Amino acid sequence: MFGIGGGELVFIMFIVLMLFGSDKVPEMARSMGKAMAQLKNATNDIKSEIQKGVEANGLDAKSLSDMTGNINSQISKAKEDLLGDTITQATKVKEDIEEATGPVKRQR
After folding, report:
1. Are 16 and 27 in contact (CB under 8 A)?
2. Which site in 13, 14, 50, 92 is 20 to 30 Å from 78, CA atoms measured?
């Protein structure tokens, strides 16, 4: 749990007991439990509100996956077009270099 070993947990409990006393520790634990429950309920409420808003706008998991699929296919198509043009140009330059004859001067 959080990278804390058993010995470290016992040490932390001992320090808490020494600082706050045995009468306050159960009250603190109860308060922390209530706070954690409230936090969990709040996050669940937020999730349900977001889900309701998404459904109200007509977006569901299927339509979102369709949209992402369409976007990905368009990106793939554009990428293939760009790479195809680049490969064609590179092949043409390679052929031109192979066909070149005679002395080649360096240009500066």
Report:
1. no
2. 92
State residue 59 phi and psi, 5-degree precision. Answer: -100, 130
pLDDT in tens, 30-64: 998 999 999 999 999 999 998 888 778 877 777 77
CB-neighbour burial class of residue 58 (10 A; exposed 0-12, middle 13-18, buried 19+): exposed
Classify the C-alpha dihedral 5-7-13-16 as positive or negative. Answer: negative
pTM for the full model? 0.44
CA atoms of 76 and 83, how far apart (whole Å): 10
CA distances from 89 to 69, 80, 82, 86, 96 (A): 30, 14, 11, 5, 11
Which residues have a Cβ under 8 Å from the Cβ of 9 and sit 6 or more positions away? 1
Q: Is the dihedral of CA 92, 93, 95, 100 positive or negative?
A: positive
